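Milestone M4 deliverable, item 7.
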Amino acid sequence: MKLDLSAAWDGAMAMIRANREVVLVLAGVFFFLPYLAFSLFLPETGIAEASAANEGDMDAIAAIVMDFYADYWWALLLMALIQTIGALACLAVLGDNARPTVGDAIRRGVTLLPTQLGAQLLAGLAIFAPIVLATAIGAASGSDALVSVLPLVALPVAIYIVVKFSLSSPVIAIDQTRNPLAALTGSWRLTKGNSFRLFFFALLLIVAFVVASTVLNLIIGLALALLGEHLQLIGLAISGALINAVFFVVAYAVMASVHHQLSGRASASVPRAGRED
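Output delivered:
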C-alpha cells in the first residue's frame, strides 16, 4: 500500500479534533508541565555564553555540555521517561478504536514502558551499528580519507533504519505489542515500500516546526523584553513548553494516522477516547 501523505495529515488532524479534550489533558501533564519545570528550575547550560566568549570553541562547549549532563542526568532521564509514557498514552488515545479513557491510556503507557525502552535500545544499536562499523573500518585502514568518508557513506543507511523503525511506537501503543523485537519487525513490515515517502514527510514536518517555533520565539521574546529579563525568561519558558506540547501531539497524531493507513484501518471511523456509559 502506498502512503497517501495528504490523507495521513487529514487523518491526524481529525484524530486530534475528535479527542481534543483528552489530548489536551495528556499534553499538559506529560509534555507541557515537564518541559516548563525543566526550563524554569534547571540552570542554563552556558553554551551560548561559552560560544560567544570562545568564538565557537567546540572543546569548551563540549566540556560545558558534559558537565551539565553529569550534574543533571537524573532530570533528563526523568523527563524522558515521563514523556515516553505520555507518548504511548497519546498514541493509544488517538489511534485505538477500543476508545480508551485517560486512565486506561496512562495505565497502558506505564505497562508498555519497558517494551518501548527495549525497542528503543534495540533500534539504537541497529541505527548506530553502520556508523560504528564504518568508523572502525576507516580507523583500521589507517587512511585519513576513509576515516572521514566511510561514516558519511554509512549515514544514509542509519537514516533508512530510523525510518523503518519509526512506527514501532504506534505498534506498541495501539496494537499493544509487548515484544520489543516484534514491535520493530512490525514497523519494518508496515513501512515497506514507503520509506522515502515517510522520510520526506517527517523532514517536511520537522523543518516546518523549526521555522515556526523560531519565528514564534523571536516574536514572543521581543514582546516580553519590554517586561524585564526575569519575566522574559518565564514567558519564553511557557511559550517553549507550549510549542513542545503542540509539536509532540501533532507528531504522535501523524504517527497514529500513518499507522492506521498502512495497517488497513484508514477506512474505519476516527477513534474517539472515552467509552460511553
